[in-house]
Amino acid sequence: MTIKVTPEDEQLIQKSLESGAFATPEEVIHRALESLQADEEWLRSNRAVIHDKIERAFDQFERGEGLTPEESLAQLEAKKVSRRAQQRRA
């Protein structure tokens, strides 16, 4: 099988090779395909949960329980700070 890649994809492959994590372009592509497959499997197995969370969020928004953009950013920042603190302790 012959595969043509775009110049942008070739650059991504080259960066992966330069990182030292992969020895050949084939290894890079294989890992990318494995990651894609894992992502698709995760999405398939979690589709119902994701759908339920989205529906719950829409319902909360309709009830006026949504957060302002500033509140959302503040919550994300707090989670990030907490996660970094946990990583430092580990």
Keywords, separated by commas or semicolons:
90 residues; mainly alpha; 3 helices
Give the helix/strand layout:
Layout (H helix, E strand, L loop, with lengths): L6 H12 L6 H38 L6 H21 L1
Describe the structure.
By secondary structure, the protein is mostly helical. It has one domain (7-89). It has 3 helices and no strands. The protein is extended and about 55 Å long. The model has no long low-confidence stretch (mean pLDDT 94).
Short structural summary:
This protein has 90 residues and is an all-alpha fold. It is built from 3 helices and no strands.
Give me the count of strands.
0
Taking pLDDT < 50 over at least 5 consecutive residues as the criterion, the unreliable ranges are none
Strand-and-helix sequence, N→C? HHH
Largest sheet: none
Tell me the β content: under 5%
Gyration radius from CA atoms, angstroms: 20 Å
Could you say which structural class the secondary elements and strand pairing correspond to?
mainly alpha
Question: How many domains comprise the coordinates?
Answer: 1
Query: What distance lies between the first and last C-alpha atoms, to the nearest angstrom?
Result: 46 Å
**Average predicted confidence as pLDDT:** 94
How much helix is in the residues? Answer: over 70%
* Separate helix tally: 3
